[in-house]
Amino acid sequence: MKTARIRFLTLSMAACGIFLTIPKVAFGTDKELAKTAKALFGIIPAKTAAPDKVTAAQIELGRKIFFDYRLSKDGSTTCVRCHQPQFYSTDRLPQSAGFNNNKGARNAQSILNLKYQDIVHWRNDRTSIEDQALRSFTTHLSFGNSSEKEALKRLELAGYQPLFKDAFPGSGNPLTLENAAAALGSYQRSLTTRAPFDQFLEGDIKALSNQAKKGLNEFITVGCASCHNGTAVGGRTMQKFGVYQNYWNLTKSKNPDKGRQEISKKDEDLYVFKVPSLRNINETAPYFHDASAQDLETAIRWMGKLQLNKDLTDEQVSLIKAFLQSLTGELPKEFRMAPTLSPQPYAGPEPL
Questions:
Q1: pLDDT at site 59
Q2: Across the strands, what pairs with 21?
Q3: How far apart are the C-alpha atoms of 79 and 279, rounded to whole Å?
Q4: Where are the alpha helices (H) located in the chain, listed in sequence order?
Q5: CB 112 within 8 A of CB 89
Q6: Stretch 125-135: mean pLDDT, rounded?
Q7: Band (27; pLDDT cuts 50, 70, 90)
Q8: Model confidence over 228-255: pLDDT tens digits?
Q9: CA distance 230 to 98
Q10: How far out from the chain centre does Cα 289 lie?
């Protein structure tokens, strides 16, 4: 194959907080494409070091809490309600619901591959996975417990004391919400989904179909990778949704969400949201914070217009979709299968 001459275009992405130099025209060979992609993204390894005994105990504790409905005020909610394995850690609802069926303003994002992301929520209103987990025990949109004392009582009644003791052996009082949040953080960081794309980045050129490789080329050269980069293919930065026009002109969203501005109160944060990870994106429709795009083709087309001011052709959309499908990985067994919980029954709406 004759190698094409590559020109480079420096893209300044102040809103994303990054500066990238990416090719402006097609790559000459698959190896050149893989080399550039490896620099832009990152590889989820095939194997990771086994956790030590304490860390393994913390991960298993977090796993049990993640799946345990008894820890909510009315027995209706736990982490897995919004992050279901059969939907690749989403619930596929426009608005996710928690205790008493209280609905949030936005849909739940997947917690898979959070290990490789810097931002947890759509509006970046959590400092970490642990911060999100800690708050969930007592908020009306999650577990709904009226106090930390009530949340701790539910953990105690559900038989968690021995598990906390094993997971936090150096603590005089291991059963705390801070430790519960730490365990949930450890568990969620353990959930990664290695995909064919990772094999391609490691040098297995045949891991991707020709369509997917062409789609990766389009993804980079069109400009998608300027914000969707890193190992999670996103999840690292905040960006205005609708750089070139009001997003609701395309999405037909009835009540435009102000995004980050509701938290920061800054004008520059109006309509700014987390750039989501695109890992497993083929499995997590509907798309965007308000679930306004029902299918991946629509989401790709809208993103091209809103963020890049480009009318993507049907062929470009089809190719980019083929690449995005190569980001689907196998669910970890520890997420795919629910754990066995203690036999204690649900404690009722009020702690005993």
A1: 98
A2: 10
A3: 20
A4: 30-40, 53-67, 79-82, 129-136, 148-157, 161-167, 177-189, 196-201, 210-222, 248-251, 261-264, 296-308, 314-325, 333-336
A5: yes
A6: 96
A7: low
A8: 999 999 999 999 999 999 999 999 999 9
A9: 31
A10: 12
